[in-house]
Amino acid sequence: MSKPAKAEKAATLKPRLPRGLVDRGPAEIAATNRMLDKIRESFELYGFEAVETPFIEYTEALGKFLPDLDRPNEGVFSFQDDDESWLSLRYDLTAPLARYVAEHFDALPKPYRSYRAGTVFRNEKPGPGRFRQFMQFDADIVGAPTVAADAEICMMAADTLEKVGIGRGDYVVKVNNRKVLDGVMEAIGLGGADQAGRRLIVLRAIDKLDRLGADGVRLLLGPGRKDESGDFTKGAGLSDEAIERILRYVSFQAAPTEGGDRLAFWEDFFGCWSEVVGTSETGRQGIAELHTIMKLCEAAGYGHDRVRADASVVRGLEYYTGPVFEAELTFPVVNEDGQTVRFGSVAGGGRYDGLVGRFRSEPVPATGFSVGVSRLFSALQVVRSPIVSGQAAPGPVVVLVLDREETAAYQALVSSLRQAGIRSELYLGASGMKAQMKYADRRGAPCVVIQGSDERAKGEVQIKDLIEGAKAAEAIASNAEWKAARPAQLSVPVDEMVARVREVLARHYGG
């Protein structure tokens, strides 16, 4: 007789996380929530109120404003509804806000101050620090036409960074104006609607200055650039003279002297910019707006060490129409290659006067900024901010189950703890006491509640302080001595259980 064929092993799925996405555990989530609470406090201090929009919008409502078009659907995850309408996952929180404001325009107070925190999605090529799903926290003012609103956004950005634990001197809010950049474009012959495509290529090239340096940007402004992977990006095709003029503009770096007249300094500084924009009225208007922002910030006590004009700030999104700003961290960090680098931008934004107006017949001015939650969280870890490195929340008190037939009695114990406001759980696995104790350790439980048949007959429970027990066990030499000492474990009447558990929690966590 032939041997029976071996049963084929059932195929199992390989657990794989898609590229460009990350999982987060409870410790990181808790720390992130503490950071978000501080950001929320800062925004509310400035009079902003919360609003929430959905993940999904009509594709046409989001518009085509993303800076990178190296993926299908122009950087957006899109799908078709059953009525053949195209829908997309939001790629930022600003475009959905524009739709929301336009839809509820008559019911909202103007200017309208709002903040939103939420997940956004980019259909981009994943890479180090480049994710397909990430969180942003935005604050916007809609309906304020003057640059006083932009100045206030810059002040709030500075205050927010300090509130979450970035010390003064470790950050700067840098401000530029798209109108100045438009003036530079006009000066080199890129004005007019027919040059819109080339202007966008130039803006995106300048936006990569920090990452690629002047040489890399020079290639993108000229014939194009091939990256490390061999991919080629077509350049703007500018002349050498035009390229040098742009690079000269974006390289303006200066600081007012200590004790000097700061406003006089800015007048001289913007005078240098005027030479670059030439006779462009748009460029000169942008310079005047920047000068006003600097005056307002100086008057409110936000000096050059906190808010300053910087020609290198561009912002890659196409919808910006005026002042643009970035909050940059200036302290050095060591990257994966052992090189000392600056952390860079953790927040940015600007004025987008045309975005809400896409839905209405009249123009609607707006300005705002967005905090990159993941980048800011990483920065706070570097500076060891108490917000992200503070004491972790205690795990739950675990009630062990030593007799399955008495599960109802154990459920009564855990219910008493919960009714007293004590975070607790009943062990619901199928293992014995030793494995249950290991489970409690892995859960970070401060203590466990034990009731065997002897304790139940006496109307008692045992409370074992796992934190104190671990300390005591280290000092006990032998197993026999440990059994005799039974460190940090005591028997108490059931009606005293809650009070004694509270004593354990107070001993280790205060309160």
Notes on the protein architecture:
- The chain is α+β, with helices and mostly antiparallel strands and 511 residues long.
- Helices cover 40% and strands 20% of the residues.
- The strands form 4 sheets. It has an 8-stranded mixed sheet. Strands 15-14-16-17-18 form a 5-stranded mixed sheet.
- Helix 4 (148-163) crosses helix 10 (281-299) and helix 5 (178-187) runs antiparallel to helix 10 (281-299).
- The radius of gyration is 30 Å and the shape is elongated.
- The termini are far apart.
Describe this structure in a few short sentences.
With 511 residues, the protein is an alpha+beta fold.
Could you list some keywords that capture this structure?
20% strand, alpha+beta, single chain, eight-stranded mixed beta sheet
Note the topology.
Layout lengths: L25 H20 L3 E2 L5 E3 H4 L15 E3 L5 E4 L4 H10 L8 E10 L11 E10 L5 H16 L7 E7 H10 L8 H11 L2 H13 L2 E3 L5 E3 L5 H11 L11 H16 L3 H19 L7 E3 L13 E12 L5 E12 L14 E7 H10 L3 H4 L7 E3 L7 H13 L4 E3 L6 H10 L4 E4 L2 H6 L1 E6 H10 L3 H7 L3 E5 L3 H13 L2
Parallel strand pairs: 1-5, 7-10, 14-15, 14-16
Antiparallel strand pairs: 2-4, 3-4, 5-6, 6-13, 7-11, 8-9, 11-12, 12-13, 16-17, 17-18
